[in-house]
Specification:
By secondary structure, this protein is an alpha+beta fold. Among the domains are: 192 residues, Hypothetical protein af1432, CATH 1.10.3210.10; 148 residues, Beta Polymerase, domain 2 (2-Layer Sandwich); 66 residues, no CATH class; 77 residues, ACT domain (Alpha-Beta Plaits), CATH 3.30.70.260. It is built from 29 helices and 19 strands. It has a five-stranded mixed beta sheet with strand order 1-2-5-4-3. The protein has a five-stranded mixed beta sheet with strand order 11-15-13-14-12, covered by helices on one side. The structure holds manganese (II) ion. The site of manganese (II) ion has 4 residues, from loops.
């Protein structure tokens, strides 16, 4: 292998002259691009793509696949670009090469079995076209065949990856011969001494067994012939690695594993399969419970055969597989087998249909049914449409639902990571948290200890886990905050009665909680904070419980209504910019009237005002004044975005008081900070909804502080 002439000969047997010319052109491009590059073995580099194409030609794959095979390393290793390939060989070939290059770029690191399964799925999902996987497998097979030239430490890594990832994929696709060869080659490099010992033992045993095998075969052939069945009878040998795993997993000795004689009988049609079965059960006694009919019920990968075990003439069990020629080809070549049978016209053969059905069940791919659709189109589907596979910074693979964002990823890693995430790097680049993840992305969440979940995340998270954690967090926050405010308001009310929370005896609280059907004192406080109970009423109740006389002295004290027309007496604070609709509290500043803060203003909470300076206030419905509010908008930094955003704000009947723009992330994104004038919360919400309709807008938050 590795010779152009041999490849051309093989291709000429099944491809049209026009295809051969295109393949030759691809060869010339690859040869020129790789000129001066050498493999570790010292061979010119071009020998590798030729060898890969030769492996694929044995499965009689189509011209696009062969061209892509010849070019599979040029994008990664030379200056030929994807655009060059598209221009010369078309989009399909370029996509195949691109698919293979993408797979080359991701590396399997983890040793865990569950991770290996995810990695295999990730590869299949990334491939998107089964032919990409076939090229990759042929590439890996040739690299394994020439692994001797590679340094020892690298050899082990490649062999392990082959054993854990590529051999199982070959097996799952039904590519039996490639699967066995990949396993045996990996075995040889991973466990050289075990492999040597075992292969010597097998060779010796097979020598000894030859006589028995040939006697049994002669007996089978004779009996089939007498029954008028035309059949090929072959002795079957297990490949080395499967002998090794059987010994290890089932704790069998070498003798026990090898002391089973395997035969395969290939006949002309299905009827002959069942007749042959009956004939053989007459020749040797069947072992009960060992018969399996995979013709009536094929395996998930399309495999069909009859399996039976017989008591052999020398006391050893005999394993028999009976199948037709067509079934045999599927068993050997799997997904590639439909090309082996390509009929001269372009109609879909029975076998292609079957292969197709099998692929569907095997990979649970989405059907875009319709008989007229080209078969090849069916190979280009999302193999795992519901999932996306991404890497953690340590190389662990996480499976997430399709559409999952960095926030979903953060919560999947750990609740704390989710609750504290502030930014994300995807493939080393800073990205917005709402960015949907793609297969193979390397995701690194940046957290900050003070950070909290943002309610806006609920607009884009895709996993139930993230959603419920964000909700839970917000609810808890809400509760704690309302308890604090309730406490303040109650204290204020109690102060008017010349009392305070700390002065109320425990017993009075217990009675009040019971009488008002509340679950706890906290709940009553939270209710006050949320405005469900009136602080003054609760204060009166509390004191009445202890001293009915005290309640009587209570003067009515409702909240102070804020109209916005109070002038200097009432200031709307610059730290939290409250707007009508916000829950607010008044803070009496010494000699300067009252500052209105939002109830959750961080600055207000931090300043720990004396309780008697905090006042219960509410917005008056008549409020008409416009209020300043700060909004931060993250946008993809496209030309003209600022103009678009500003126009949309103006259309929403708001004024822009101030704006700053700061490029972020090397100019990819920009942060715009607006001071807007709005009438109330609903007005602000309407503006934000409008702005979110602009495609470049990534995220909008109202700023506090
Ligand atoms: Mn390669």
């Amino acid at each position: 292998m590795g010779h152009l002439g041999e490849l051309q000969q093989a291709l000429a047997t099944y491809l049209k002259p026009a295809d051969l010319a295109r393949i030759e052109a691809a060869y010339e491009l690859a040869e020129e691009a790789h000129r001066g590059q050498f493999r570790k073995s010292g061979d010119p580099y071009i020998s590798h793509p030729i060898a890969v194409a030769s492996i694929l030609s044995q499965w009689q794959l189509d011209a696009q696949t062969l061209i892509a095979a010849l070019l599979h390393d040029v994008v990664e290793d030379t200056n030929v670009s994807k655009a060059d390939i598209t221009e010369r060989f078309g989009r399909q070939v370029a996509d195949l090469v691109d698919g293979v290059s993408k797979l080359d770029r991701i590396e399997f690191q983890s040793q865990q079995e569950a991770q290996a399964e995810n990695f295999r799925k990730m590869l299949l999902a990334m491939a998107r076209d089964v032919r990409v996987i076939l090229i990759k497998l042929a590439d890996r097979l040739h690299n394994m065949r020439t692994l001797d030239a590679v340094p020892a430490n690298k050899r082990r890594r490649i062999a392990r990856e082959t054993l854990e990832i590529y051999a199982p994929i070959a097996n799952r696709l039904g590519l039996n011969s490639i699967y066995q060869e990949l396993e045996d080659l990996s075995f040889q490099y991973l466990y050289p001494s075990r492999c040597r010992v075992l292969s010597k033992a097998v060779a010796a045993a097979r020598g000894n067994r030859r006589e028995v095998v040939s006697k049994v075969r002669v007996a089978i052939e004779k009996r089939l012939r007498e029954s008028g069945i035309i059949a090929q009878v072959q002795g079957r040998q297990k490949h080395l690695y499967s002998i090794y795993t059987k010994m290890r997993e089932k704790h069998l000795t070498f003798g026990q594993v090898l002391d089973v004689y395997g035969f395969r009988i290939v006949v002309k049609d299905v009827t002959a399969c069942y007749i042959a079965l009956g004939v053989l059960h007459g020749l040797y006694k069947p072992i009960p419970g060992k018969f399996k009919d995979y013709i009536a019920i094929p395996k998930a990968n399309g495999y069909q055969s009859l399996h039976t075990h017989l008591f052999g003439p020398f006391g050893s069990p005999i394993e028999i597989q009976i199948r037709t020629q067509e079934m045999h080809k599927i068993a050997e070549a799997g997904v590639a087998s439909h090309w082996l049978y390509k009929s001269s016209d372009d109609s879909i053969t029975e076998l292609q249909k079957k292969t197709h059905q099998w692929l569907q069940s095997l990979l649970e791919m989405q059907s875009e049914s319709g008989d007229s659709v080209e078969f090849l189109e069916h190979l280009k589907v999302d193999l795992f449409p519901d999932e996306v596979y991404v890497f953690t910074p340590k190389g662990k693979i996480m499976a997430l639902p399709r559409g999952a964002t960095a926030v979903d990823f953060a919560y999947a890693v750990h609740t704390d990571v989710g609750n504290r995430c502030v930014a994300v790097k995807i493939n080393q680049e800073l990205m917005p948290l709402r960015m949907a993840l793609k297969n193979g992305d390397r995701v690194e969440v940046i957290t900050a200890s003070h950070a909290k979940p943002n309610p806006l995340w609920l607009n884009f998270v895709a996993t139930a886990k993230a959603r419920s954690h964000i909700r839970h967090f917000l609810k808890t926050m809400h509760f704690e905050e309302s308890v604090q405010l309730g406490e303040r308001l109650l204290n204020q009310a109690l102060a008017a009665l010349k009392s305070s929370i700390s002065a109320v005896p425990e017993q009075q609280w217990t009675t009040l909680v019971r009488d008002s059907n509340a679950r706890s004192r906290q709940e009553i406080l939270s209710d006050i904070g949320l405005g469900k109970r009136h602080g003054a009423v609760v204060a009166r109740q509390l004191l009445a419980v202890g001293d009915p006389a005290a309640a009587g002295e209570l003067t009515s004290m409702g909240p102070v209504m804020i109209r916005g027309s109070e002038g200097m007496a009432v200031q709307f604070s610059k730290c939290c910019h409250p707007i009508p609709g916000d829950r607010i509290v008044g803070l009496i500043s010494k000699g300067q009237g009252m500052d209105i803060h939002t109830h959750d203003c961080p600055l207000l909470a931090k300043s720990h005002p004396e309780p008697d300076r905090v006042l219960d206030v509410e917005w008056d419905n008549e409020m008409k004044k416009l209020h300043d509010v700060n909004v931060r908008i993250i946008v993809a930094n496209e030309r003209g975005v600022l103009a678009q955003v500003a126009a949309r704000i103006a259309e929403s009947e708001s004024n822009i008081q101030n704006v700053t723009v700061e490029p972020q992330d090397g100019g990819k994104y920009a942060i715009m900070q607006f001071t807007l004038q709005v009438t109330n919360r609903q007005h602000l919400a309407r503006i934000m909804i409008e702005l979110r309709r602009i495609p470049e807008v990534v995220r909008i938050t109202r700023m506090r502080n």
